[in-house]
Amino acid sequence: MERLMTVDDVARYLRLNREVVLRKARKGEIPAVKVGTRTYRFYGKQLDQWLKAKSTVKQEASIYSSGVKGRASRKDRSPVVKETATRAEAEKAATSKKQQQLAVLAEARRLQARMEKRLGKPLPSSAGEIRALREERARRGS
After folding, report:
1. How many domains does the chain have?
2. Would the pTM count as exceeding 0.70?
3. Do 27 and 18 form a contact (C-beta atoms < 8 A)?
4. Domain extent at residue 95
């Protein structure tokens, strides 16, 4: 059976403050086992799986100059093919992000139309009038 890790063990392992580990365990952000009313224990394998899932570094598939995906040493990579693939991925991500933004905008406009239908037109902004009154008051005061 695997030995359970204490909060201090996990704090050293993750190089975090003990209180941060406890807070993440209470919130359920770190896989933990609650022992008793205030004590937490951790399985090492679960922590490793959690770390792998949280990893932001993605393993890149290198592309040979012939267009075959796989691993290659730096000297085997064609800079033109790599740059083209990277540019295509960036354009795809930008297009995807732009489509998401447009969808959010469309949803906001639909919600605004629904609100106007139920509640009527919103009142115009009075920020300009308030600013003008403040400026006038400041001129009179000096």
Report:
1. 2
2. no
3. no
4. 74-119
